Amino acid sequence: MIYNGPGIPENLMPHLFEPFVTSKATGTGLGLALVAKVVSDHGGVIECERLRGQTVFRMLFPIRKERD
């Protein structure tokens, strides 16, 4: 198992993709909000969940067929 951080506090999970939400003393809380905006602008969604002791981020994008 790779461990590289303390994980996301449970109380931040519902607000994770909102601007200015951070658990870091020097953080701005803009990183995940910007990621969510870019993903949304491309028709996708981003999700986060805790899974077997890990934090898992999932990005889903629509598949578009090219025009003839």
Radius of gyration: 15 Å
Strand content: 15-25%
Show unreliable segments.
none
As an assembly, this protein is: single chain
**Number of helical segments?**
1
What pattern of helices and strands is seen along the backbone?
Answer: HEE
By secondary-structure content and strand pairing, the structural class works out as alpha+beta
Tally of strands: 2
What percent of residues adopt helix (DSSP H or I)?
A: 10-25%
C-alpha termini separation: 47 Å
Give the overall shape.
globular
Biggest sheet record: 2 strands, antiparallel
- Which sequence of strands runs across the widest sheet? 1-2
Architecture overview:
A two-stranded antiparallel ribbon has the order 1-2. Helix content is 16%, strand content 21%. With 68 residues, the protein is of the alpha+beta class. The termini are far apart.
List keywords for this structure.
68 residues; alpha+beta; two-stranded antiparallel sheet
Task: Write a concise synopsis of the structure shown.
With 68 residues, this protein is an alpha+beta fold.
Layout of helices and strands:
Elements: H1 31-41, E1 45-51, E2 54-60
Antiparallel strand pairs: 1-2
